[in-house]
Design goal:
With 250 residues, the protein is of the alpha/beta class. It is 38% helix and 17% strand. The protein has 2 domains: 138 residues, 3-Layer(aba) Sandwich (Rossmann fold), CATH 3.40.50.150; 50 residues, no CATH class. A 7-stranded mixed sheet has the order 3-2-1-4-5-7-6. Helix 2 links the parallel strand 4 and strand 5. The longest helix has 32 residues.
């Protein structure tokens, strides 16, 4: 009987914690959307908290960050946001879930609203590779610096797992590390955006945009200078003003 009561108390505490958490998330959403002005959502914020944005993450680091499972339908009504931004997150989903996330971003954006996705670029990895029989094609200094820093800091027990300063070790580690599931190139991400209904898909530089709200967003300080820009691809895509997909490829 004592053990049963203990289990019951534990179940009640867990249930109450879940209810309070859901209630807090609902309050965060309602409070943000009730504000006047432009509505901006950051999906997968980590520790990068952006002022005047609704910051969301699966593992919120602070109480004012919304808990959000981006593999599910997003808990917002249609046309709720003017801008959506996500940095180095979509690559952590298998491709079908990534496509679903793009579909959901299209749904919750206002007509004319813009999505900005920053993610590792497959072309960056391909460009790092050098066949042994073609040493005449030299890397740029930033590429050499990236390779050396990555091998020195991101691979544990180098003597065993990466005994040589070789690009093959970096590439193998990069596509599997940190829970990566799918590394996009520009043509694949742009095609996925078009299939969700987006138009006017434009590649941007890290931290740069024609939209003031989308400038200076990426967390460049988390890596040595120039490294995030080297590995990242940034695409912005606009929801047509009519709100109707411009083309359907599926």
């Amino acid at each position: 009987m004592r053990q049963l009561k203990k289990k019951l108390r534990l179940a009640l505490r867990r249930g109450a914690a879940r209810w309070l958490k859901l209630d807090r998330d609902d309050q965060i959403i309602r409070s943000y959307l009730a504000r006047e002005g432009v509505k901006k959502l950051q999906i997968g914020c980590g520790r990068r908290i952006l002022p005047d944005w609704l910051n969301a993450d699966y593992h919120p680091k602070t109480r004012d960050v919304l808990h959000l499972d981006a593999t599910r339908a997003l808990p917002f009504g249609d046309a709720s946001f003017d801008y959506v931004f996500s940095e180095h997150m979509i690559e952590h989903f298998p491709f079908p879930q990534g496509q679903q996330l793009l579909d959901e971003c299209f749904r919750i954006l206002t007509p004319g609203g813009t999505l900005r996705i920053s993610t590792p670029d497959l072309a960056f990895l391909v460009d790092l590779y050098r066949p042994e029989e073609s040493p005449e094609r030299e890397r740029r200094p930033i590429q050499d610096e990236f390779l050396g820093h990555f091998l020195a800091t991101e691979i544990k027990n180098r003597e065993r797992h990466a005994p040589w300063d070789c690009d093959s070790f970096l590439i193998n580690k990069f596509v599997r590390a940190w829970g990566h599931e799918f590394i996009y190139d520009e043509k694949t991400l742009a095609r996925a955006m078009r299939e969700s209904g987006f138009a006017e898909i434009v590649r941007r530089e890290v931290m740069a945009s024609e939209h003031e709200a989308l400038r200076e967003l990426e967390h460049v300080d988390r890596k040595p200078a120039g490294h995030l820009a080297l590995e990242s691809m940034v695409l912005e895509a606009t929801k047509p003003p009519s709100g109707i997909p411009t083309e359907t490829v599926r």
